[in-house]
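Data deposition worksheet. Section B asks for the primary sequence of the deposited chain exactly as it was used as input, without tags or linkers unless they were present during the calculation. Section C holds the resulting structure in token form. Section D is free text for depositor observations; keep each observation to a single sentence. Incomplete worksheets are returned to the depositor.
Section A, Depositor: J.P.
Section B:
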Amino acid sequence: MKRSFILAGCAALALSLGACGDATSSDASDDLLSSAGDTEKSSSSKAEDKSSSSAKRDIPEGARVATLDDLERNMELSGFFGGTAYLATGTKIGLFSIWVPDTAWISVPSDFKDGVIEFSRGTIAAIDAKGVVDSMKALVPSESNKNPGRSIGFIVNEDDQLQYTLDGKTYKDVKETSVKTTTSIISKGEDLAGKQLECEPDSGAKEVYSFYDGRYIVETKDDKNGTWSAGYYDIHRGKLLMHTLFYPQPTYSMFTATVSNKYGIDFSTGKSLTCKVSELKYGKVSAKNLAQEWDVSVDGLDWMFKLKDDKTFELEAKKGVDPKLKRNGTWDVYGDNLMLKFTACSDKGCTPSVKGVVSDLDPKKGFKYAHSDPDEPNIPKEWEVPIYE
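Section C:
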């Protein structure tokens, strides 16, 4: 009997349609039970959820807020929803996951600020079951549960014991645990870093997976057109998790798969890919050097592009004093790729995300940006440092 999977939200993923599968698989819907109540759809004008992890929280006397160094690769959370769940940290560079093995799992991008993992950006995949699955679904925001997302906080108490709390309530012990591995699959995310996999499905377009340090880009290519998506990746408990953050077209909010030691990819939906591995060649662009204001005048329009330290940006175009375009969103750098996700657009129907290679970056002069934006007016491909008198 085929297992059905349910999924619940990631409110920040405006066009996501599902989880734990393959976006191009024509039979993926057979393995995924989704509904409008499980996945929140929102327009590209919807603002990103703001993390509340910086909010002060009470901790027991003698305790301190936990840091990434306090976390093990695999941990047991006893008493989680009256049972046991497992927390995986992998490479500790941005992606966490909570597991009830063979039942439900949640991927969550997080910087672990103040020792807190916010579920507001989480995505859950689970078998179609009740009980603990319902409890896990309630952790992430969706139209069906109407909550903004819950959180799990960590401390080290006065006895040097790592503990966790769900929503700041009772603190419970965290125990280190281990996961059985096998030489037939890749069990560490760092073993994929710096590799590119060119994969041929049984039918459909070729897929190219580029793995950076904790970040990925997958491109689907055929003779006529193609698409792409990108986000955070890691391997937790033997499973490759790819949590989508940037995408120009509807796609899954999370992919779950195993990667063999010969670099074949087997998705949880049952789709398998045979892949050829090669070294991923790319330049490294400093996000710090990009985080400033840029401008340029092109085709009668004066452009301003402000990339901020908090990974948000403002993009504007004016003709004289008349505004012609204004967009806001979030940005990141994957190797030499500048990723843009639009959360507000004055030009309705703008492409949700854009990516492109940055070259010739000089923080005192400018940079080139060979991007994928198909819209008009088109984002300039060369930017300069503004001149102030």
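Section D:
Helices lie at 28-31, 132-137, 287-290.
The first strand starts at residue 5 and ends at 8.
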